[in-house]
Amino acid sequence: xxxxxxxxxxxxxxxxxxxxxxxxxxxxxxxxxxxxxxxxxxxxxxxxxxxxxxxxxxxxxxxxxxxxxxxxxxxxxxxxxxxxxxxxxxxxxxxxxxxxxxxxxxxxxxxxxxxxxxxxxxxxxxxxxxxxxxxxxxxx
Length: 140
Prior knowledge:
By secondary structure, the chain is mainly beta. Helices cover 7% and strands 48% of the residues. It has 1 helix and 7 strands.
């Protein structure tokens, strides 16, 4: 489970088999006071991957700066780089995404007209969530 802000707009691609996949990065911050009383801060960056309908929703509604809640599982991929060295990348494969910012808040994108925000409030990435999102089910 992560709560953070997008560092850039999601990149949505289609695999050769026709499945949509979105990838983006979320920054989380940790603040604390050290032993000398100085406030400290550290940012961590997490690579997020969303598939199918959740990828479509992420591509449509998420923008740089949007605050989101992501729930998913960790997955590490490996490959051989151009230099012949083995490379690793750990990602969060998103199962659930919830937008915590209001439309247009914290992003470079303009706010949509009232009632045009069609429901990326809570989206699940499993196959069972392919039902239509209805505007009357949105809590704001």
